[in-house]
Structure formats: C-alpha cells, structure tokens
Amino acid sequence: MKKINLKLYAFALLLSIGFVSCTDLEIEETDSIITEGFQGLADTNSAVDELYNRVRGQMENQGNRHSFMEVTTDAAIVPTRGTDWGDNGQWSSLHQHLWTPEHPFVIGTWDEWNGNQLIASQILDSRSNPTPQNIGDATFLRALSMWTILDFYGQVPFRDVTLPSRSIPEILTGQAAYDFIISDIDTAISNLPTIAAGGDEANGRAGKAAARFLKAKLLLNKHIYLGGSPDAGDMAQVISLVDEIAGEGYELQEGYFDLFRESADNETIWHLASSTGNVIFNGLHYNSLTQGGGGWNGFATLAEYYDLFEGDTDSNRMEVDFTLLDGQEERRGGVPPSGDGDLEDSQVGNGFLIGQQYDFDGTPLQDRAGAPLTFKRDFLDGDGAPNIINNDETTGIRVIKYNPRYGAFTGHKIIFRYADAHLMKAEAMMRSGGDPTAMVNELRVLRKASPLGSVSEQDLLDERGRELYAEAWRRNDLIRFGQYTRDWLFKAPGSVGNDTFKLFPIPSAQLLANPNLVQNPGY
Predict the structure, then answer these.
(1) 3-class SS at 351?
(2) Strands 355-356 and 374-375
(3) What are 103-148's pLDDT values in tens digits?
(4) CA torsion 464→470→471→475, rounded to 10°?
(5) What is the rounded CA–CA span in Å between residue 388 and residue 362?
(6) How far apart are the first and last CA of the chain?
(7) How many whole angstroms separate alpha carbon 376 and alpha carbon 218?
(8) What's the CA gap between 149 and 119, in Å, rounded?
(9) 3-state SS, residue 53
(10) pLDDT for the residue 477
(11) How far is CA 170 from CA 124, 155, 157, 184, 511, in A?
C-alpha cells in the first residue's frame, strides 16, 4: 500500500511541474494534433483505380452483397453439412431471415459500400482536379454504392469531404437519398464515354450504357424507396433508357452459357475483372473436379426454384456435346456423362446439377464416404427429416453459371447484362398498362423455352428468376414484386409476412458512432 501511495504522489508531483513549466498554452499551427482535414488527392487517376479495385473485390465476394441478394431468397441456401458451413449460423440465418445487427455480413456490407462513397467523394472534390472521365467514373461508382446502401438499409450516411473530418455524416433517406443518387447517375451519363457493345468494355470500366442501366434500375424500384405505386412517367423513362442502351449495339445474344465465358459479347453491358472462383466452387462437391481439385460443398438451390424451368423435375442430363436430353430449356443446363477431350480440365455440367455426377472418363463419382455422388432435391438430416442443418454431402441441387472448364477463377464477372435491361423494359411496359408478352417470348424463344400465351406479373418475376439466377438480383426482384416475405423452405415461421426483414439492421456500432442514424423498425 505504501508503494502505491508513493507512486501516486510522485505522479502528482510530475503533473504539477508540468503545469508550472508549460506557461505558453497557445496551440501552434505546427502542432501535430491539428490537421487541416481533406485537402484534395495528389493522384486522382490512382484513386479511381483503387475505387474500381474495391468494387471488383466486393463483387467477387460470396458473402456480404452477394449473399444478401441470393441466400436471403428462394434461389440459394447454404445448409450445414456435418460441421461444414456452420459458421455460427451466419449462412443459415440469412436464408431463414433470422439475422441480427451483429451479423458479420450486415457489418461488412455496410462498411464496404459506405467506404466507396468516401473515396468517390474525395475524387469528385474540386481540390482533387478530377478530369471529366474521373467525374464519370466516380459519380457512377458513388451512385452504385449509395444505392446499395439505400436498397439494403434504407438510410445512407453521406460524408461531406469539405467539412472537418470529425464531422458526423448526415443521413439521407427517402426522396433526398433517391434524388442524390439520380443526380450522380445523370452526371455519370454526361461524362462517361460511349462504349459500343463488345468493345472497350473489356477493360472493366463503365460507359454510358452502364450508367443508363443503373438509372433504369433506380426508376423501376423508386416506389419501393418512396412509397406509393410505379409512376407511368418513370416507367416511360425506363423504356427510353433501355432503347438508348440498345442504340449503342447491346442486344440479346444466343448461346446462354457462352455469355459467362471470358470473351466479349454484345449482351454484357458492364463486367468487372472480379474472380468467378467463389461462384464456381462454393457449390461443387469436394470430388466434383478430379482434374484439378474439388469444390467447397456449400451453396445449393431449392427444388421450388429449379422447378421454375421447363424439363424433367428429377433429371437434367445432356450429352458431352451439350445436347439436352430431358426436355429442359437451355438455361437449366445439364449434367454430361463424361468430359470432352477437346475441353480439358473439367467435366462439370452447366446450370443446375442434379442426380449422378461423373468423372472426366465417365466413371460415376462418389462422395467422401464412398456413396454415389448424386445431388438431390431435398435437404434431409441424419434422421431423414427436412432440415437446414446436419445434412450429408449430397443434398441440394447445385448451380454452375461460370464453368470451370473455361478457367477456374477467371476474372470476368458480369454485373449488368442486356437481358436484364430487356426484362426491365418489359416490366415497365406492364406497370404502365402495356402487354409484355411479346418481349418476354422474344427472350424465351432465344433461350429455347416454349412461348407463353400471356404474361402476368408472376410470369414476369419467374422469367427474371430463370434468366438471372445467381447474378445477385433475386432479393431486389422479390421485394419489388411483393414476394420477399412469403414462405419458402426453412424460412423461420416468425419471419413469414414480416416486413422487418425487407431492410437489414443498422450495425450496432454505427448507431453509437452516429446519433443521426435510427435503427430500422423491428430490430
């Protein structure tokens, strides 16, 4: 006790000496505690490169944004197989709509896409001397990032880089957020170059067509953010924007799975050099690729989603030359009986993989326990009961859109595609009193599916599901068509019909850091 007191006395004495000796308490400009805040970027071009690289990495991640768009819907599920993919329930809770403000993807998505906004704003600051190209790129990526936050969280923090760095970001919601994002998109359209279909888009940078696509997407979803119903004038703008995109040469293209190869095509509006490895391997079995390593045996789809497609519900076969054998439409793909000698390294099929899987030489594959590697419609636990946990290695239909036979981890991931724009135009026609049947059938015939006699709102949602699966649009579509809260396999009973889950919660740490934020209802 005496030693402690002596130390306290000594410390007090030192403090008193300090106060006596420091008679000049005026803060000088050279003091390190004083900062001038943001003063502009020295190399704006490098900052634009950094921003694109950040977005590229975010788009290739199977968690965060991608999992929000896919795993929280009927299109994707990540069951627990033994101890694999348990991860403290972070995957199953998404599909069941049981996430919390502490979920790692709730935090990660918020941090990533809000971080993009700050960099973009620094690029756009006049003190950074941005070029028109810099302005186009930065406003496009800032609009994309802020829209992502608006769509997921309903509240968009905006940090004004002209204010001191200690300033708390203001929060944009509703009309203010929407108007800010649309203004950015219009600026991007004015400053980005025109990139003809199949042209310089190969460098992964956005052109006017990508900005027009993004604006059409915002207009189509406007009533979700502002309330009310779709406005006829907004729908007319969507149609006009898609027509302008088509005027640059973008169009529907034959050969569905060829679109997801590295070569340029006339349908891809914007892609990034994001690795496709996650979306290739996250669903394949450990033994699926004997020619160069296996998969991670996680992601699958629900049988009800697979059943949206034409064809035999229990079989999805095709020949080695990709001739389809079970009456399925082209987009459902198929499972070949072996590899193709002209295409080395993989025998994996396209689209939806169900039933027996085969080795490159035609040998039926087995799982790690020696049982036939047959992907199944149902998710059953060790007792044979439907369950999202305790599954074996073969449950669930697997999905392949980017095929490993054309290069594992190939850096060419499609973000915006003209088929989506085509269906947005059809939807805008329907929502303004027109008939979308001819437009939908134009796409269906190209994809070798039977034409529809008429197209209802449900038909249009289903068509979007068939065309755009695994491309991170399903949540957005289900919300716009009023079906995100409906029941599906393994959704928690308390989440069915619960509007709480149309938005994700604000991370708890952010609520403490910014008193302008308000937690979303229900959390």
Answers:
(1) strand
(2) antiparallel
(3) 999 999 999 999 999 999 999 999 999 999 999 999 999 999 999 9
(4) 70
(5) 32
(6) 49
(7) 38
(8) 15
(9) helix
(10) 98
(11) 18, 10, 6, 17, 13
Q: Are 328 and 316 in contact (CB under 8 A)?
A: yes
> Quick one: tokens of 519?
């937690």
Q: Give Cα separations from 260 to 172, 271, 354, 360, 473 (angstroms).
A: 36, 10, 21, 22, 16
Q: What is the pLDDT of residues 315-350, one digit of tens each?
A: 999 999 999 999 999 999 999 999 887 666 689 999
Q: Report the distance separating Cα 492 and Cα 95, nearest Å.
A: 9
CA angle 391-490-354, nearest 5°?
A: 55
Q: Which positions ≥6 away from 69 have C-beta within 8 Å?
A: 472, 473, 474, 475, 476
Token pair listed for 470: 């695994």
Task: Classify residue 448 as left (phi > 0), alpha (psi -120 to 50) or beta.
Answer: left
**Alpha-carbon distance 434 to 142, whole Å?**
34
d(CA 44, CA 27): 33
Mean pLDDT rounded to a whole number for the chain: 91
pLDDT at 26: 42
Q: Please work out, in degrees rounded to the nearest 5, the angle formed at the alpha carbon of residue 511 by the alpha carbons of 507 and 513.
A: 110
Query: In the structure encoding, which two tokens stand for residue 454, read together?
Result: 């008429």
Q: Give the DSSP H or E segment for 423.
A: helix 418-431
Are 377 and 356 in contact, with CB atoms under 8 Å apart?
no
29 pLDDT more than 50? no
Sign of torsion over alpha carbons 457, 398, 76, 277: negative
63: nearest Cα among 38, 40, 41, 85: 85
Tokens representing 424 are 């947005």
Of the candidates 425, 515, 424, which has an alpha carbon nearest to the alpha carbon of residue 473? 424
Helix or strand (DSSP H, E) at 51? helix 44-60
Q: How many CB atoms lie within 10 A of CB 316?
A: 27
**Interacting residues of 11 by C-beta distance below 8 A, sequence separation 6+:** none
Residue type (1 letter), 156? V
Q: How many CB atoms lie within 10 A of CB 432?
A: 16
Measured from the Cβ of residue 383, the count of other Cβ atoms closer than 10 Å reads 7
Q: How many helices (H) and strands (E) does the chain have?
A: 16, 9
At residue 33, the 3 state secondary structure works out as coil
Query: What SS3 state is found at 473?
Result: coil
CB 216 within 8 A of CB 269: no
- Distance from C-alpha of 98 to C-alpha of 451, rounded to nearest angstrom: 39
- Contact partners, residue 448, CB within 8 Å, separation at least 6: 324, 329, 330
